[in-house]
Write the structure tokens for this entry.
Amino acid sequence: MSSAANGKNGTWRNWGGNVSARPAREVTPASVDELAAAVRQAAEDGLRVKAVGTGHSFTSIAATDGLLIRPQLLTGIRHIDRENMTVTVEAGTPLKRLNLALAREGLSLTNMGDIMEQTVSGATSTGTHGTGRDSASIAAQIKGLELVIADGSVLTCSEKENPEVFAAARIGLGALGIVTAITFAIEPVFLLTAREEPMPFEKVLADFEELHTENEHFEFYWFPHTGNTNTKRNNRSVGPEKPVPQLRGWFEDEFLSNGVFQVANWVGRAAPAAIPAIAQVSSKALSARTYTDIPYKVFTSPRRVRFVEMEFAVPRTAVTDALRELKAMVDRSGLRVSFPVEVRTAPADDITLSTASGRDSAYIAVHMFRGTPYQRYFTAAERIFVAHEGRPHWGKLHARDAEYLSRVYPRFGEFTALRDRLDPDRRFQNDYLRRVLGA
């Protein structure tokens, strides 16, 4: 992945291709000591500091004109503690590597997002999540953190040690320090049965509370310009394992979901008027299927079609209203939207700036194919989400600022006070953090 993030002449670009930066210098430390020394050196040279993972954020949260730290040498599992059921992993480890390594040991995370290309620190620092009735974001599974703070010292935190740092740093936005290791709660590997099936938009909304309550992990995709959705229910299963047959898996997950979808988006970009007709076909392309497999094979899938994305968390009770408003807006706007809208849920958690902090939440994610104009759609969607006190995903596009965010996050001041203490000179500041946290 890092090759895609490496531009020419020292320019860094993100995965979505919509953010670039030219750092004054880059380092790839091979140890926590080397990383700490680099932070101290940057302070002496008056440079700001940012760590970057695989560049999967659509915001400029990782962009810097100062020192860019690449963590790809800080990878791998440090320790598996079977007594306490935790794994401690270096910050630059891709989620994919962690999932595969845990599976080999007969272990698993409880919940995860729908892709696994990101580094563990990048994913958790921005609040990456999947969907769950009882189990929350990846960051909510953190039991301990190690981070290098602005003065170059190494701080460890957990519920018992530096608990006020632990409350905030699990989703720290890169504002409190550079995460160097994470300890996650794990459990013995289990099986999930996935049931995917098409369902009319109005039926999903009418039955939403029931679908949420009756399933451990419920999500759906709505195809704009249609009344169609594809639903997915994942529940724990006693087995037996019944994976998607290889050929069918390739046909549905690669050929239809990536290959044909890529072509459909190319056509849509060239001839936007064709998009509603394509959407009718796309929304009916995937038929119902049921399969049983280990968690990462059910939760995650490859996403090769490049896009840009905005996602907001609204109170779960507001999700059906927000979706009806979104559909009405698209229908009357003349917009042509070729990407489905993704809807997921999360229970309330206790992380200071988590999008689900203190409230049961539903996520609505809107996407546009990379290279197509997205501003009008995203602005109109954001207006709807904001009317429901929506909280934007920290790694996805949005136009919110500290003034707004301090109103929708009751503990906002707690986070900024901690940042004042840990990073008084704003060593880890950048334009994005200035906007969302204030100067």
